[in-house]
Amino acid sequence: MEAEVVAALEPEDDQQGMYLTFELDREYYGVWIGYVSEIIGILPFTEVPELPAFVRGIFNLRGQIIPLMDMRLRFQKQFVEYDERSCVIVIEVGNNTVGLIVDSVSEVISFEEADIIQQPMLSSGVSNQFVKSIGKVGNAVKLLLDCDKLLSNQEVEILTNQKDEG
Amino acid sequence: MTRNFENEPMMEVYIFETTQNLEQLEQVIICSEKNGGFTPDDVSEIFRFMHTIKGSSAMMLFDNIEKVAHVVEDIFYFIREQKPDGLDFSAVSDLVLECVDFIKAEVKKIADLSDADGDPVFLIEQLNTFLDELRNIFGAESNQNKNQKKQQQYYIPQEKKQDLPSTEDWLAQESGMASEGACYHVIVHYDDDCKMENIRAYTLVFGLAEMVEEVYYLPADIADNPQTASYIRENGFEIFFKTEISYEEIKAHFENIIYIDQLLFREIEDHRLDAFRNTPKEAPSIDNFALPDRDLCMPASSPANVIVTEDPQKNNTTATQKMISVNVDKLDNLMNLVGELMITESMVTQCPEVEAIQSENFHKASIELHKITVELQDMVMSIRMVPLSTTFVKMNRIVRDMCKKLNREVVLDLYGEETEVDKNIIEHISDPLMHIIRNAIDHGIESEAERLAKGKDKAGHIVLEAKNVGSDVLIVIKDDGRGLNKERILEKARQNDLLTKPEAEMSDRDIFKLILLPGFSTKENITEFSGRGVGMDVVTKNLDEVGGTVLVDSEVDHGTTITLKIPLTLAIVEGMNIRVGKSRYTIPITTISESFRPDQKDCMMDPDNNEMVMIRGQCYPILRLHQHYQIKNAETDLTKGILIMVEQEEKVICVFADELLGQQQVVVKALPNYVNSMKKILGLAGCTLLPDGSISLIMDISGLTGLRVQ
Fold first, then answer.
1. B339 to chain A: which residues are within 8 Å by CB?
2. Dist CA B328 CA B425 (whole Å)
3. Fold classified for B161-292
4. Does B519 touch chain A (CB under 8 A)?
5. B547-556, long-range: CB within 8 Å, 24+ apart, which pairs?
6. What global pTM score does this model have?
């Protein structure tokens, strides 16, 4: 599965409508492929104290030290133990490189412009703050993430106080 | 100025050599000034430096530099030949240093790829006037010499191949057959004045490489042995080559090369090259010949009865460092790659299947592999680190100039200049150091009369010291001057509305720190050097950029001590790895005073429920890391874990951890941007990669000691 996805990542041209989709608690999300640098399995990581629970720690990716963000915890969903399907999507946004732990990666989908609905009117859950738009594939919808917002720390202080079992 | 592509390597060599020469020259002058005059060695050395600079500048067509160097050379030529008594050394030094500055500025321009357009006319006039004066006072220099020199200077290269020295007996063998693949033997004598013979020879061989099939030359090590220059100067440069190009063409090629004084050109038989073919390695290098006394090339060491604060030997090593400039990004990449290599190496050798291999050879090889990777890592780590010596030695010049202008005697003592600091940091501390030293001399050190009245040494002392303290480098600048006047500072601060908190709450250090604010100057008169209130704020600004801090201590009449504390963003730290639960931490070893397992009876609670431990009658606070960082599954029984007593800035605390894992040199890496932007974690200075690829967090002890010490 991973190999296929990575192969699909190769073509550089026309990445505009391409999103890497992943599963999280039976929902499907997408990140714009331009942000994705690689997909890896879960490597041993080191916990860093005093950080919000969704930052599980930092890990060493070939000498580069990268923080690891658990997307379930980030969206305040129930934490589940990682299994062999769990993946880390390494994204690079600006000068931040962060690994996102997801339940599993599924595929790269190329959306037509018409299939992307901007500014979705959604209920105001935590996860929806980070959803920029919705992509339609047949009957299913994928929630397309706003990576800039995902890595901004505006609401971090609130979350730090709600540190729960990680 | 035309600068074509071919010249680039030459240009690089030129810039490098000239800069080096200038630095050495400066040191010689300052050194000899301290000794109270030029020794004959100094004079000829300065002469030689200027001569080299002149020669190479002329070659690179930098007329301005050449002219200046030429006049200076004339002056020293005069001094060398006439040995005038009662020469005004300081005037000479001033002039020469001015010229050094001028040339430095020009070379800087060249290095920045702009035109070296400085106008030397004024300087040259000054120099000529000086030289004329010298001549008037000390009698006319033998004009004959002068003219001769001039002639040499403008010597036009000419081919003298017609009148070859007939002592060359093989000359008779010259045969006219210009068949395919003919072999030639060429001896090149360069123009006396051209300089850098070895580089020229190398260029020559390089240019020839295209045209010939085989080429051998003597001396063979021209590219990396600068001593060959003098050998070539005396004995000529011999080239043996085989080519298909006709005799005429080859000859024309040689004749077009500039600065060739004599050219011996003849055809030889093919077998004469065999000697080189068979044993190319043994082609005699000039080391086999008698070399001129090596000392000639070294700055003369100074007599023992004078104040020389730096070991001259050490100066040599810094000055003769061979430098290349490499993009720091490349080094970072290299470091990451080596890190990967280390991890992969341990993954391979510690893999259970591999460990089961019963082969002595294999294990030997894997130990060797491990050794090499570790060495490689050490090497890569040390590449980014640069000793402070160059920056420190530069301060000599500032002290000298200031002393001259202010008519004070100040001795600068340097300690710990071998301390290594990250390249980036060095660039940021040179300016602050300069400003602090200027201030120390201008404001701190009293005038001679005042010093004697206070019972102090006539000469002021400034100590410049660098040392590693924990995860920081401390640079201490200490003078024995009058110290800071608290009242004056406060008054000035009140006037300029610079007070940030009520005066009563300010400690001495807080007050002294005010002098670092922009626009702050207690000096009534603005001098050339200080008093405008700019300067000291540069110190804070530059240090902020590298995350450093400034501490100011002062005692009236005993002097002022300014301490720059610079963190090592990327530095090697000797650390003790400890384990707490599953997490691993690294404590800089220099902060650790001891580690021990306490007895139950020594542990106690103070009334505020803070844990304390009693050692040798002293009570120390305990910081449980697992509690502080909420680490799960960690040892909670004090008697089963270990206490590590750490000390920083005179604050002591005992850190409680599960166990010690061992001591190791680690590279400090910053925590990822994302983590840093989220929260400043108290007590963490960064992280590091352990050899097994896992990450350990490096503790910032000064952050921790602040937590529990009242």
1. 62-63
2. 13
3. Alpha-Beta Plaits (3.30.70)
4. no
5. B548/B472, B550/B513, B550/B516, B551/B509, B552/B484, B552/B509, B552/B512, B552/B513, B552/B515, B552/B516, B553/B508, B553/B509, B553/B512, B554/B483, B554/B484, B554/B508, B554/B512, B555/B483, B556/B482, B556/B483, B556/B484, B556/B485
6. 0.48
- Domain B5-154, architecture per CATH: Up-down Bundle (1.20)
**Highest-confidence range of B139-143, B154-158, B443-447, B656-660, by mean pLDDT?**
B656-660
- Measure in Å the smallest separation between the Cα of B695 and chain A Cα atoms: 6
Q: ipTM score here? A: 0.78
Q: State the nearest Cα–Cα gap between A141 and chain B, in angstroms.
A: 30
**The residue to which tokens 């997801």 are assigned:** A102
Answer CATH for A2-159 from 3.40.50.1220, 3.40.30.10, 2.40.50.180, 3.30.70.560 = 2.40.50.180
B341/A contact by beta carbon, under 8 A: no
B684 and B703 Cβ atoms separated by less than 8 Å = yes
Instruction: Note whether A122 contacts B: Cβ–Cβ < 8 A.
Output: no
> Choosing among A60, A62, A96, A153, which should be mutated to test the B contact, i.e. which has the most B CBs within 10 A?
A60
Q: Which of A49, A97, A98 sits opposite B630 (nearest CB)?
A: A49
Number of Cβ atoms within 10 Å of the Cβ of B277: 12
Chain A contacts of B695, Cβ < 8 Å? Answer: 45-46, 58-60, 65
A125 to chain B, closest Cα gap in Å: 22
- Contact (CB<8Å) B336/A67: no
Query: B671-684 pLDDT, tens per residue?
Result: 888 888 877 788 88
Positions of E strands within B379-514: 385-387, 410-415, 420-422, 460-469, 472-479
Residue-wise DSSP of B75-128: HHHHHHHH--TT--HHHHHHHHHHHHHHHHHHHHHHHTTS------HHHHHHHH
Q: For the domain B572-708, what is the CATH superfamily, name and number? A: CheA-289, Domain 4 (2.40.50.180)
Q: Do A63 and B584 touch (CB under 8 A)?
A: no
A55 contacts on B by Cβ (under 8 Å): 675, 678
A50 CB near a chain B CB, below 8 Å? yes
User: Is A138 an 8 Å CB contact of chain B?
Assistant: no
Q: How confident is the model over A115-138, as pLDDT tens digits? A: 888 765 555 566 567 888 888 888
Sheet holding B212-218, edge to edge: B212-218, B237-243, B182-190, B260-268
